[in-house]
Amino acid sequence: MSYSEDTFKKIIAHAKEYGFIFQSSEIYDGLSAVYDYGQNGVELKNNIKKYWWDAMVRLNENIVGIDSAIFMHPTIWKASGHVGAFNDPLIDNKDSKKRYRADVLIEDAREKINQKIQKEVEKAKKRFGDTFDEAQFRDTNPRVLEKQAEIDKITARYKTAMENGDLAELRQIIIDNEVVCPISGSKNWTDVRQFNLMFSTQLGSVSEDADTIYLRPETAQGIFVNYLNVQRTGRMKIPFGIAQIGKAFRNEIVARQFIFRMREFEQMEMQFFIRPGEEQTWFEKWRSARLSWHKALGLGDEFYRLHDHDKLAHYASAATDIEFNFPFGFKELEGIHARSDFDLSQHQQFSGKKIQYFDPELNESYVPYVIETSIGLDRMFLALLSKAYTEEKVTDEEGDTRVVLNIPPALAPVKAAILPLIKKDGLPEKAREIMDNLKFDFNCQYEEKDSIGKRYRRHDAIGTPFCITVDHQTLEDNMVTIRRRDTMQQNRVAITELRSILEAETSMRKLFEKL
Q1: What is the domain partition of the chain in residue ranges?
Q2: Average pLDDT of 219-229?
Q3: DSSP code of 71?
Q4: Label partner for 208 (CA 20 to 30 A): which of 76, 104, 298, 324?
């Protein structure tokens, strides 16, 4: 599936209009790249968290969760390498005065070429129909081969430049590929320079005596410095994992694409501690498990792809991104990394405390190796919103189009809308009775304003899977009309059946059973 040119703008507008996402501090003209989640947004966000947390912590007996502080001892960031090396390559356009990440400009240029290949594939698919062999086409078509050679050349140069920290070469790649500023269309670029992404502040009551500390740029270090506490108090045996959901902060050079890249964001991370030498087996296992978690949502397998890192950190043996096809192309959604024993060894060295595990089966002590899974909660939110947003042609009393969010029912902000057909004749009272019964188990909304058709439309727009309508017949037979969001089909069911219907259709159990 490909998105139309203005789909992303429509998604952003829809997110605001229906209470999903607001610009932070909007009445003061906003704060760049910082967003607030509205009443429907926070429900969807909490449901994503629950899906991730329960899949990690409840379904795995050897994974536990923690919640570490945002403020941490500043030496932690020296040990992790963030103080000296948490930099992005920055480049300015001299005409627009806008600042960009050089690596992102190069990746975008590469993705544009890839999109041209994809168009060739789509055209051929239409031309040949069921007989089309995509793999053979990619291997033999001259135009595709030419474009792929361009990508491979850029990738090779980019990988070498990143590994060597060659900022001049990064600029030259941008120049050679005629990358233009999205604002000015100009190719007038400055040199590339490094930019540290951490926010600093002071800890202490008197500024002269205050220590410089940092807002954490990632949540992982809070897990690593608590490794011993969790392992001992939980009597954890390797292999085991520690999961965490929390805020992180990065002073991004250029934050863009709505909530895809923000300065304040939320991460869902799990660090899995293993024996040295078993990292490849566990890396492959977690890469497969995490891809299954995404695909279980049913957004479409074609929206995901795996991308191995061009540049590995010096301590890493493997790193793969799960990329999602956002309205602006395939971008990283989650990372799976084999981090060796780097983090724990660094904290052992800088703290002077022994951070090891005694393995009774091997009768020896060692610093565990780590497999990391790290997903951006805000990016996951955007992926769901992007895929769910649908404009459909329909025929009913409210017109010939509807906007519907096809959010997986288990994650939908509101599970059911309780709607009295009219605001009199005892219908509101009966609807309230149903609402009061269901609200203990499901997030429901009661609504009586406007025609029933307009109320259906509003709930389509926020992704409510079920609308339950109370009419005059309900008072006689205790049956209601239940309408399904995706098909708009309606049927009569007994009030006593509502709980089991909602439980069957909106429970996360169905998702977990796929994992």
Answers
A1: 7-86+197-385, 87-189, 397-513
A2: 96
A3: B
A4: 76
What is the rounded average pLDDT for all residues in the chain?
91
Instruction: Report, at the CATH architecture level, how domain 87-189 is classified.
Output: 2-Layer Sandwich (3.30)
- Cβ distance 18 to 11 under 8 Å? no
Interatomic CA distance for residues 362 and 296, integer angstroms? 38
d(CA 502, CA 514): 19
DSSP 55: I
**Domain 397-513, CATH class in plain words:** alpha beta
**Contact (CB, 8 A) for 477 and 446:** no
- Is the separation of the CB atoms in 327 and 11 below 8 Å? yes
Q: Which of 230, 253, 250 is nearest to 242 (CA)?
A: 230
pLDDT in tens, 152-196: 999 999 888 887 878 899 999 999 999 999 888 899 999 998 877
The phi, psi pair for 68, rounded to 5°, reads -90, 160
Q: What are the angstrom distances between the C-alpha of 466 and each of 46, 296, 397?
A: 20, 21, 19
- pLDDT, tens digit, for every residue of 260-306? 999 999 999 999 999 999 999 999 999 999 999 999 999 999 999 99
d(CA 415, CA 459): 10
